[in-house]
Amino acid sequence: MSQQRVVIIGAGPGGLASAMLLAKAGLDVTVIEKEPRIGGRTSAIESDGYRFDLGPTFFLYPQILEEIFSAVGHDLHREVPMKKLDPQYRLIFGAGGELMCSADTERMVAEIAKLAPADAPQFRRFMDYNRAKLEKLAPCLQTPFLGWQSLLQKRLLAVLPYLKPWKSLHAELAGYFQDPRLQLAFTFQSKYLGMSPFQCPSLFSILSFLEYEHGIWHPVGGCSELTRGMARIATELGATIRLNEPVQEILFEGRRAVGVRTAAGELRADAVVVNADFGHAMTTLVPDRLRRRWTDAAIARKRFSCSTFMLYLGIEGRCDELQHHNIYMTRNYRQNLDDIENGHVLTEDPSFYVENPGRTDETMAPPGHSALYVLVPVSHQHANIDWSKARDHYRRVALGQLPKIGLKDVERRIRFERIVTPLEWEREIGIYRGATFNLAHNLGQMLHLRPQNRFEEFNRMYLVGGGTHPGSGLPVIFESARISARLLLEDLT
């Protein structure tokens, strides 16, 4: 009997995790990647001795990837050395004050007490409640939701008291902290999902909990080292990775996916795993006439996350006045988010994030230099914003914000620069509407209402990545790979 073949579209973190698991299970695995490098959004920009992560810079909750590495006979921390950050990040509030956040409970309570003494005792209560919530929720995040009947599972019924669908994340945290700055400090993590804490379901209070319970990690060399390590191991296990080869279409026989076509020809397979951006893949690789639920029109009606305006700056001189992670929250935080999500207009005083990895990792820039990663949340692609005209103006806005976190005299010291706007995210990187965090995570687009891991439209097609269950962010993307690989193996054996 011949070895069963699987084709994976996209060498992002979800596709590579799937490749590791499926190759270990004995399948003939081929990963097809359109870019000349592996990693997708979790890849690197390298030039003139500077190195930047293209996308994710925070690595949270490494347990899931540790388990995937262990399942294929490897040790994550041996393959990809990492440093646990402390402080985790520095929060600077436009309304005044700052918070140096630590996973050390005693230090964190003391830091909160400096900002809002009356709120300091609430930190432990917040942690205890969310520890219990995660214990109930974890089995749901590890389980596929393949229809409304999945909602009746005992494990989901057990978590219902913690879901509070009527409550936003911000409203949930207002029940712990009275100081508005602290409410933001424990809800800004919804931006990892590309959502406003005023709209994001209260369920996602587990995001900030995970940071304080398990810490924030920096892989030496950046998060792109995770995908490099995964690609290396997948190859050792027998998987083939073909770079610089865009998939032109997915092949079907009736309602069954049977392979892909690229410029090199057809590659037939017993199953197809789609790790490409969901909206982009469906609208470019699968004819609209074949889709029933996820047609072009249906996808266009869905809610999508925000996007990001990016500056990758190679700077002469060190920036030791910054921490590794630095987050500025504008005084008009709610209005800033409303401009992004509802008005689809640009804000002149936006919140922003700066990574200064040289604080931890000297491999990211030449000696005496710094590699700064500047991220400003903005609307996904919308008719209100013409990035071909707004690009230079918003560069000036972003650079003009940097003194607010203590970073001065930057523009004169720039030795390397790359800008990525929602236009580039969409056209060059292949992200639907440039929505870098994929489909939004509102209650109408979660669990079985999200595109399913065993994709409901076609037989022998499986989804991994931020566009399927459980959602966006590296830990849950790795979980999606584990879920989809398990379903695929069940179907082929």
Task: Outline the structure in words.
The protein is an alpha/beta fold. It has a domain at 5-82 and 222-302 and 441-492: FAD/NAD(P)-binding domain (3-Layer(bba) Sandwich). It is 33% helix and 20% strand. It is built from 16 helices and 20 strands. The strands form 5 sheets. The protein has a 7-stranded mixed beta sheet. Strands 10-2-1-14-20 form a 5-stranded parallel beta sheet, covered by helices on one side. A 3-stranded antiparallel beta sheet has the order 5-9-6. A hairpin with a 2-residue loop joins strand 11 (247-253) and strand 12 (256-262). Helix 5 packs antiparallel against helix 6 and helix 5 (122-141) crosses helix 9 (206-214). The radius of gyration is 22 Å and the shape is globular. The two termini are 13 Å apart. The model is unreliable at 145-152 (pLDDT under 50).
Would you kindly provide a brief summary of this structure?
By secondary structure, this protein is α/β, with parallel strands linked by helices. Helices cover 33% and strands 20% of the residues.
